[in-house]
Design a protein that fits this description.
about 35% helix, disordered N terminus, 2 domains, alpha+beta, disordered C terminus, about 20% strand, single chain
Length: about 270
Amino acid sequence: MPTAVTISTTSGGSKNLLGIRQAVVTHTGHYELVNDWAAGDYSDNGCDDFIRAACNWLDELFPHRNTKGWIYKVLSAGECIVSFDVSRYISQVWIADESGAKRTLLEPVTETWLRSTYSAVPITSTDTGTPLYWAPLVGTLAAPQRTTSEATLESAGAVDMDMMVFSDPLITQALCVMPPTDVDRTLAILGSWRSVELVNNDDVNFWTLNNPRILQRATRREIELDLHRNREEAAFLAQDIMIDLKRLEQAATTEEAAGPAKRYRMFSRK
């Protein structure tokens, strides 16, 4: 998971985790969610869980510009699989040539097509070359075997596991490019990610910096749902929040309309 950014917030008050926490407990009266408000101690005592849940909910409702970002992975000669922290989705994969002077957009395909077309086992035994295709991999074991190690499966005689990623499937995902690269190359992966997780008092993200009031109300909604079991009040808060998100969406749509057509690339039929 990405590390939260820390910046100076000597001015701006509520535009960090501490400020959001103070506002939430003040507006809701849930002072038990901080340690000792009467003594000025607003350190977390449960409030941050609601704030983080609110951030995740808002990210799903409004995938703002800061959810999009690049990660870079160096693919060594003979390799074809890279793994990274779980994203919301991956939209593009680019590869740089060995000199780093030119980049190429890889064609997205399905894992089924990739497995069928490059059927050698292990897949890295396929003739190397310049990668042309990429596919997101399931790459994880199903629940009945989730904690089973690769060594255990191999000792039982299992084969064809080279497209699996034996790590925590809850925090790791992978993609495969084919054919395996013939030289070391750099992959640039464009995807959508959740807002950085708020942990420390000075931590900030898109919502704390740009829309703290929306985040405060979204946190109040989480409290209504989980502490009060008051779905009616939660629905009222959600309606107000949706009005503000609509305003943000209109601004984003205006920006999109000013750009080129066909901004989004769909998967091919392969």
